Amino acid sequence: MPLAAAGGDEIVKDDGAGFLSELFGLQGKTAVVTGSTRGIGRTIAGELARAGARVVVTGRRRDAAEAVANEIAATGGQALGLSLELRDEASIGALMSDAHAALGRIDILVNNAGIYPAGALADATPEHWDEVHGVNVRGAFLALRAAARLMGQDGGGGRIVNISSMGSIRPAAPIRFAYNASKAALNRLTEDAASAFAGDGIQVNAVLPGPIDTGRRDPFDEAATKMHAAVLRRIPLGRYGTPHDIAAAVLFLCGPASAFITGQTLVVDGGFVVR
Questions:
Q1: 10 Rama class: left (phi>0) / alpha (psi -120 to 50) / beta
Q2: Is the pLDDT of residue 10 over 90?
Q3: Over the range 119-148, which residues count as b (16 or more CB within 10 Å of their CB) and which as e?
Q4: 12-30 average pLDDT score
Q5: What is the per-residue pLDDT for 217?
Q6: In Å, what is the CA distance from 141 to each residue of 45, 68, 104, 133, 202?
Q7: Cβ atoms of residues 213 and 240 within 8 Å
Q8: How many whole angstroms separate alpha carbon 201 and alpha carbon 260?
Q9: How many Å from the N-terminal Cα to the C-terminal Cα in the chain?
């Protein structure tokens, strides 16, 4: 039965689907997700497709990217698999150009790809540092710049979401010192890029995952199991995060609901950093 408003006007009852689509729907949008053949990136690509976006799945191996794209298509989504090497500026340029040519425009970039090799700071080599920063900072910068140029050229704005880390703002896993430092740099880049590209209607934000269980831990590794339990005790919400928790935050930052948010770092960690 229709609801009545003050003054006698009739209000048509909405079942909620239209409202949710207005806030989170990505119909007609094109999204590029770097490093999306597995883990968090793969889940992000799938959730963006479920929200209606045409998704470009990327990985170092094109066959792996195409396999994920085919999985998305099999569930009713639209996806394209392309290869990408973030250490290579030419590869990044080719990826953005190919995605733009195939799908007409790029509305969303999710800078997810990254590496996190461990090592003791005292024994680290410059090569270790350069390798991590070459992918996590330089590669992310090149992808962001290339996507923003196309977004500005086409008009209509865009969304860029950088996947950073809780370790960029709080001491965590010192054996990943280079990774933590690279993600701190990515946070700063997020803020500067938000200012630089705001005139083109491009919003730039970052998501900082906390402890995430991607299902890759060996349950028979006693040391890993003890560490897993120790970390769990520090999470106020009482559980590890999942790739879907991160994908949900990305979906929010890519959709209409976040139309007035830019230059922000959103921590998704179950409260870990406040304990």
A1: beta
A2: no
A3: beeeeeeeebbeebbebbbbbbbbbbbbbb
A4: 78
A5: 63
A6: 20, 25, 23, 11, 15
A7: yes
A8: 10
A9: 49
Which residues are part of the catalytic machinery?
165, 179, 183
As a whole number, mean pLDDT of residues 41-69 equals 98
* C-alpha–C-alpha distance, residues 5 and 57, integer Å: 47
Kindly tell me if the per-residue pLDDT of 125 is higher than 50. yes
Alpha-carbon distance of 132 to 123, in angstroms, equals 15
Question: Helices 89-103 and 140-154 meet at what angle, rounded to 10?
Answer: 30
Length of the chain: 275
What is the torsional sign of CA 217, 131, 95, 99? Answer: positive
Query: How does the average pLDDT of the chain come out, rounded?
Result: 91
CA distance 39 to 196: 31
Q: What is the pLDDT of residues 159-187, one digit of tens each?
A: 999 999 999 998 878 899 999 999 999 99
Please report, as a single letter, which amino acid is at residue 106.
I
